[in-house]
Amino acid sequence: MPNMYASTGESDPQTDPATRRYRAMRACTKQLSGPRPLSLRERAAALAEAPYDLDERPDQYGDGVVAFLEERVAGLLGTEAAAFFATGTMAQQVALRCWAERTGNRLVAMHPLAHPEVHERAAYAQLTGLRSVWPTRAPRLPDAGEVASLDEPFGTLMLELPLREAGFVLPTWDELTAVVAAARDRDAVVHFDGARLWETTAHFGRTLPEIADLADSVYVSFYKTLGGISGAALAGPAELIAQAKAWRHRYGGQLFQQWPAALAALQGLETELPRLPEYLTHAQLVAATLADAFADVPGARVFPEPPHTHQFQLWLPWSAEVLQEASVRLAEESGEWLFGWFAEPGLPGISYTEVTMSAPALEWTAKDIHAAVERFRALLP
């Protein structure tokens, strides 16, 4: 029998889990975790609503709407300048490279769960010859004492705010200022991996410029938290950003046109950024309700409780395969999407998922969550 999907370019939902999950989510009437997935047509149509003059010409090699976005980010963070990057990985590598050149020290202090260690194939070492040192292995940001007692002189302290792999955890404001001061006492510069920095203001009780002012440079993402297509920005002193743009070109990041990503980023700044405090408040309700709904399940837990941002982890004592199948079946049979993907950290029979609040989640009450979890649990062995 011929494959009807072969001529359309679509994946067969019977053999492609991503397509099956996408279709199940799209058909749901209620969605607790994550933003509603958009089709290509919807994505393209949404760009027409971006807060920018669409009668202007497209950007070329970083001017036009891309330059406008850079100015907007610098203004939001209170920095002298900002540079748009196609990927956060590139922005991070360029930032660490520039600081190593400026400090004359290739050693970077970072957490072993930080993005460059876990998700970038050790690019900082392979491409630039940098080395890392870990102030702590605990699932939290390092404290001032740990930074002060490092036995090697380091040129840059990189702090991921929030630390995603540990559960989107953040220090207190006093802890953050103390660890930055400890790095300064070691004559080191401070770089914030702020892919999700946008969502930290409520926890810290500070504005974005106040938070960014603690660091010498800050990286932010446009597709994480803000729902953009792709892209990131590196913000800091004008002299550093000029150097970063030179390395951006060398790394292949001087794309001819990037207007779709820039327009989507501007849209996220306009629509999602103001709603993040509301999402955090709802995340605290959802986390407490999920903890209660699974209270009788040995090994189940929400972390951290309460959440530090609008994202948190849910740990359950089943395999990722079993939990993912139950999630998709719940969506297909009940029209309710509770959880996204599950991962296994290496502990037998234990999996976790990241629960993310966005606009669709706001309609869920504690009663709704309890009822949906009961249906979800009925699908588990």
UniProtKB/TrEMBL annotation:
InterPro entries xref list: ArAA_b-elim_lyase/Thr_aldolase, PyrdxlP-dep_Trfase, PyrdxlP-dep_Trfase_major, PyrdxlP-dep_Trfase_small
Domain named Aromatic amino acid beta-eliminating lyase/threonine aldolase: residues: 62-302
Pfam families in UniProt: Beta_elim_lyase
Cofactor: pyridoxal 5'-phosphate
Keywords: Pyridoxal phosphate
Record's keyword annotation contains Acetylation: no
Gene3D superfamilies found in the cross-reference section: Aspartate Aminotransferase, domain 1, Type I PLP-dependent aspartate aminotransferase-like (Major domain)
Family note: Belongs to the threonine aldolase family.
UniProt-recorded name of the protein: Threonine aldolase family protein
Organism listed in the record: Streptacidiphilus monticola
